[in-house]
Design goal:
This protein is an all-beta fold. It is 0% helix and 51% strand. The chain contains no helices and 11 strands. The strands form 2 sheets. Strands 2, 4, 5, 6, 9, 10 and 11 form a 7-stranded mixed beta sheet that branches. Strand 7 and strand 8 form a beta hairpin. It starts with a strand and ends with a strand.
Length: 119
Amino acid sequence: QLQLVESGGGLVQPGGSLRLSCAASGLALDYYALGWFRQAPGKEREGVACISSSGGSTNYADSVKGRFTISRDNAKNTVYLQMNSLKPEDTAVYYCASRYYCSGPVSSWGQGTQVTVSS
């Protein structure tokens, strides 16, 4: 079974950057699309970004386009989310997830990592 572990969250000032990582174990990531989701207090979990199994296709929520970049390294069984120009409204718990394709249901979730954007 695929297990996902996120890291890289923390406290950052508005306008700053963070890079989240999600390391997989148990199965190779090669055949999975990978996505990042986030959930802010009192809000529903929302999709942030997704990358296809080959890495050749990505998509982003409108709220993060131009600021966030998703990437993957299948050799390291890891997916990344580079977050730039962070805003207070980006504050949330960020989760990575595996899917068979980006529009499909999630097959595995990570435990989440907290990102707080505040001065």
